Amino acid sequence: GQQVMQIPQYQHVQEGEDFTTYCNSSTTLSNIQWYKQRPGGHPVFLIQLVKSGEVKKQKRLTFQFGEAKKNSSLHITATQTTDVGTYFCRGGTSYGKLTFGQGTILTVHP
Amino acid sequence: EPEVTQTPSHQVTQMGQEVILRCVPISNHLYFYWYRQILGQKVEFLVSFYNNEISEKSEIFDDQFSVERPDGSNFTLKIRSTKLEDSAMYFCASRGAFRNIQYFGAGTRLSVL
């Protein structure tokens, strides 16, 4: 079945450093979504990517969808303590199946 | 801003008991979902619901689980005979007809003793 692998599982950074999490699917995706879950909170939708090679930015966050639509990345520039949380990708296929990645837990040391 | 509400926030039950987790989706949404997150693990899809019927379910969603939309506002997840391994956070989500964005509730933490 479809699998979505996300790496790294954990990332510890100093405030001000950059952070990147990667998402890889075993099958071609029709779209990919990114969510953020604060500690003790619920997933909150960040963005959806649909087009091959698409790049979208939200302030310090840059999201990229691979040319083959099987991988994606989320990059945070100059992390802040408010960026702490777990970042999940979720891959969607053309037949509607949705699969979450395992998530990357980001901790930011001030 | 409208939000998905879930009750209770924490449910403690004995193994073998039935539990019903309740969700009130955003009012004009048409697609409803249940997810499970075991402590420290990823969010897992359980079931999606549209037009008063299940549209997709995962292998986790076995005969012990059922969903219902008993009235125009509530969306419930029932676990008939809880097992220890059902202990998890259960999230409800909903989305509208046109935008593929799911809005999650705050979750119900289910503890099976």
In short:
The complex is a heterodimer of chains A (110) and B (113). Chain A is mainly beta. Chain A has strands at 4-7, 10-14, 19-25, 31-37, 44-49, 55-58, 61-65, 71-76, 85-92, 98-100, 104-109.
What about the largest sheet of chain B?
Answer: 7 strands, mixed
Can you write the helix and strand succession of chain A as a string?
Answer: EEEEEEEEEEE
E-strand count of chain B: 11
- Biggest protein-protein interface? A-B, 19 and 16 residues
The mean pLDDT of chain B is: 93
General form of chain B? globular
Counting copies of identical and different chains, the oligomeric state is heterodimer
Helix vs. strand class of chain B:
mainly beta
Q: What's the order of the H and E elements of chain B?
A: EEEEEEEEEEE
End-to-end Cα distance of chain B, whole Å, is 36 Å
Structural class of chain A: mainly beta
Descriptive report:
The complex is a heterodimer of chains A (110) and B (113). Chain A has strands at residues 4-7, 10-14, 19-25, 31-37, 44-49, 55-58, 61-65, 71-76, 85-92, 98-100, 104-109. With 110 residues, chain A is mainly β. In chain A, the strands form two sheets. In chain A, strands 2, 4, 5, 9, 10 and 11 form a six-stranded mixed sheet that branches. A five-stranded antiparallel sheet of chain A has the order 1-3-8-7-6, with no helix packed on it. The model of chain A has no long low-confidence stretch (mean pLDDT 93). Chain B is an all-beta fold. Helices cover 0% and strands 50% of the residues of chain B. Chain B contains no helices and eleven strands. Chain B has strands spanning 5-7, 10-13, 19-24, 31-37, 43-50, 53-57, 65-68, 75-79, 88-95, 103-104, 108-112. In chain B, strands 2, 4, 5, 6, 9, 10 and 11 form a seven-stranded mixed sheet that branches. In chain B, a hairpin with a 2-residue loop joins strand 5 (43-50) and strand 6. The model of chain B has no long low-confidence stretch (mean pLDDT 93).
